[in-house]
Amino acid sequence: MSHVRSVAARFERIGAHSHIRGLGLDEKGRALPVAQGMVGQKEAREAAGIVVKMIKEGKMAGRAVFLVGPPGTGKTAIAVGIARELGPDVPFMALSGSEVYSSELKKTEVLMQAMRKAIGVRIHEFRKVYEGVVTDLEIKTTRHPYNPYQQVPSGARIALKTKKEERRLSVDAQVTMELLSKGVQVGDVIWIDAESGRVTRLGRCSDYRGEKVEGYDVEASAKVPMPDGPIVKEKEFIHTVTLHDLDEVNEARGSIFSLFFGGRETKEISPETRQYGDKLVKEWVDEGRAEIIPGVLFIDDVHMLDIEALSFLARAMESELAPILILASNRGMTTIRGTDVVSPHGLPLDLLDRLLIIKTTMYSEDEIREILKIRAREEKVDLDEKALEALVKIGVESSLRYAVQLMMPSAIIAKSNGRTKVLAEDVEKARKLFADVKQSVKHIQEYEDKLLK
User: Whole-model pTM?
Assistant: First the structure.
């Protein structure tokens, strides 16, 4: 059992903001002290709540949100919280300002692809399907055309049953291969797409007992009830893709290179391909077959963008198909990259005028304590009361991020000493082994004459 547990833990990945479930607001939009993984920053969270209402009412066109505050004050957490409030299937694309400078793509192309990855298209499709539990399956075979010693499927006879109807179907070799590849057997509930022949295996029927159904003590398949109604019916399929997904599909179809070699000669998407994709999406929306889901594009360290990229961003904000743009910066008065102009946060004043600016402030001691408790639960670290207070003190004196980073090393030290609970001595040992920024600077000054320059 211990081995299984260790294997499961090995694949566990806990993100820095995996604990964020929303903005932590009540029905009136007021920030709760601790809720949905959010702590403190009440004014910023309430402002973000108003932004969410504006987005849902379609009143954010041509605007963007700008989160400004010192490092480690929850700017990314608020951006994630906004995305969570908008819904579970809302696309969220995070990008750092330095990521636009790629050796393969133009910076405007990187920004455009990021924006289109943050716009979802929910496609509704009604298709004719055969649905039922398999009560009989007979595979027909024939001799392989190129190997007389090998048999290949040529078709099948399959019996499907619902609570109201039972029918036998003859299917061709393509559907038979689908049935075999999905491992369909008697007792499974399946769909067969009437147009494409694609087979979807839903699971084992929980309320069917046939002569040919073999029972197992342990089964990995999901249990589903026997379908009701007729066997032939129309089903609604909902697919959610991004505009960038559609761009890539359309670009691959239109490329001669991909036609002959199965790949793309460039990673850039042509403007004609995007225009074609936008036209298709608009037609689907007008026909009621699709709806557009504006997602969130979060650009952290936006001051890293140069004047050309910022100008492109300001223009892209006004396009018809634009995501919710959230920018963040921890800079004060600094030079706009690519110019000699000094401006607040390194952004042009005309762009700043279009932004809804939300301020974040430093966390108090009590807020740091609550955040550390949440992170300890998320990372499954059992902290002693004195160990928690030691981390709180470190968070106040150094930084919250440094205190959070020391949590897991402290747990490893405790585990090496045969304990599951982290004590204050474990935290102090971790602090000696891992330096914060102040200790790192002091170390550099001490060995300045011996370090390379």
Answer: 0.65
- Measured from the Cβ of residue 438, the count of other Cβ atoms closer than 10 Å reads 12
Tell me the angle at which helices 365-378 and 385-397 cross, rounded to the nearest 10 degrees: 120
Question: Is the domain of 310 the same as that of 272?
Answer: no
Total domain count for the chain? 4
Q: Which H or E element spans position 394? A: helix 385-397
How many residues are given for the chain? 453
User: In the structure, what pLDDT confidence band is assigned to residue 10 with cuts at 50, 70 and 90?
Assistant: very low
Q: What CA–CA distance (Å, rounded) separates 128 from 232?
A: 7
For residue 445, the model assigns a pLDDT of: 81
Residues 108 and 185 in one domain: no
How do strand 34-35 and strand 38-39 relate by DSSP bridges?
antiparallel
Same domain for 39 and 114, yes or no, is yes
CA 340, CA 329: separation in Å to the nearest integer?
19
- Residues 258, 327: one domain? no
Q: Are 53 and 356 in contact (CB under 8 A)?
A: no
**The one-letter amino acid at 438:** K
Cβ atoms 310, 329 nearer than 8 A: no
CB atoms within 10 A of CB 420: 10
